[in-house]
Amino acid sequence: MDAETLGKMSSSQKDELMRTVQAQVALANMQELLSKVTDKCFKKCISSPGTSLGSSDQKCIAMCMDRYMDSFNLVSKAYSERLRQESGRL
Amino acid sequence: MNRGGDAALQQFIAAETEKQKFQNIIHELNEKCWDTCMDKPSNKLDSRTESCLKNCVSRFLDANILITERLEKKATEMLNNHDSMSLE
């Protein structure tokens, strides 16, 4: 989309564009999380793939996914906290 | 995007870009710290893993700051001695 097209947009079209951008960003984050959780939890839980996904494998994957999200939130919190401290020091 | 009416839109895109950069850093950092700290997943994050994750974030940032400072110093040294411009 070029500058001219943007200039001609009405304010409701701009609102629409902002919502679309936000939705796409959220989707991209979910996809990144999905790919990381699949990678990490496959490694943690499926050490030797059998003929089917057993119930203990399923339980492990479910727990692993929950813990990965806990970890993500914790890391996010710790990182933001540190950023706040560092910017206060300057 | 140079008209006055687009200022809000430009600001919005800049803010979203910043937020996204932050999210990407967290994705990468969480991956590193998960690999370093996580044992077999259990019912909840135990306190040992929690403190490992927190320390992992802090030490990663310490390392980043230290490397940045050393690199700055080296760059300054290199600029000050043009004759010995080599990456030793």
Automatic annotation (TrEMBL), chain A:
The keyword Mitochondrion applies. It is a peripheral membrane protein. The keyword GTP-binding does not apply. Residues 21-81 form the Tim10-like domain. GO terms for cellular component: mitochondrial inner membrane; mitochondrial intermembrane space chaperone complex. InterPro entries: Tim10-like, Tim10-like_dom_sf. GO terms for biological process: protein insertion into mitochondrial inner membrane; protein transport. Its main location: mitochondrion. The twin CX3C motif contains 4 conserved Cys residues that form 2 disulfide bonds in the mitochondrial intermembrane space. Heterohexamer. This is Mitochondrial import inner membrane translocase subunit. It comes from Tigriopus californicus. The lineage of its organism: Eukaryota, Metazoa, Ecdysozoa, Arthropoda, Crustacea.
UniProtKB/TrEMBL annotation, chain B:
This is Mitochondrial import inner membrane translocase subunit. Residues 11-73 form the Tim10-like domain. One of its GO terms (biological process) is protein transport. It comes from Tigriopus californicus (Marine copepod). Belongs to the small Tim family. It is a peripheral membrane protein. It holds the Pfam family zf-Tim10_DDP. Keywords: Chaperone, Disulfide bond, Membrane, Mitochondrion, Mitochondrion inner membrane, Protein transport, Translocation, Transport. Its main location: mitochondrion. Heterohexamer.
